[in-house]
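Question:
Now give any protein.
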Amino acid sequence: MPSVQQLFSLESETALCTGSTRGIGLSMTLALAEAGADIILVQRDESNQTTKQQVEALGRKCTIYTADLSSKASLKGLVSRITDTDGHKVTILLNCGGIQRRHPSHQFPDSDWDEVLQVNLNAVFTLCRDVGAHMLAREPDATGRRGSIINIASLLTFQGGITVPAYAASKGGVAQLTKALSNEWAAKGINVNGIAPGYIDTDMNVALINDEARAAGIMARIPAGRWGRPDDFKGAVVFLASRASVYVTGEVLLVDGGWMGR
């Protein structure tokens, strides 16, 4: 029987991560590296080397592949290049890339709707499908495990939000996609789960933070008494990526300071 430390260890694992250059995605990627995983980063370009340098400072390998999540053509063949051409064995997929667009719903432009759905949902499906196929094509380990997929959802997976219909629709879709894939792949050794962040102090929420009345209303409902921080996600992502969560699948884990229980 493995020890608790062994259950949470990601030694000899390789994680493919999107959205890792800042905020929650950066913290979660570094957490995976701290737990022992090598990292493959998907970025629009290689100009931002900060995450790569931080991962390597932890003693882990890190490789950047360039792709634009907003472009179906850019994503085509990405996983094949990583796994078949370059020979990486991906055992963890972290889908954290996401964008936000705000407009009154009756004025929401088609172009923004399409972009949000492509980045937040279509790209998540494409990467889940292609990495899932890569995992299914190899033999499971001695415990029957082939890998872990972690998709980043939102409070708007459960709530509608205001002036963000595309984001709410995309994150609702992420939860249902997570459940659908889990139903097919859990018995084959692939755990598929989601993490739903609450209100977190990141660049994506600057508009809310700067709206004093709205920010005060949000704070009043958070039982923990503060906005979340990116580092609040380190434990959750390592848990879902590791053997510690071997019997947890199809779930969306709320990390929200108690918001949804209010």
About this structure: Residues 144 and 187 are 9 Å apart (CA to CA). The chain has a mean pLDDT of 96.
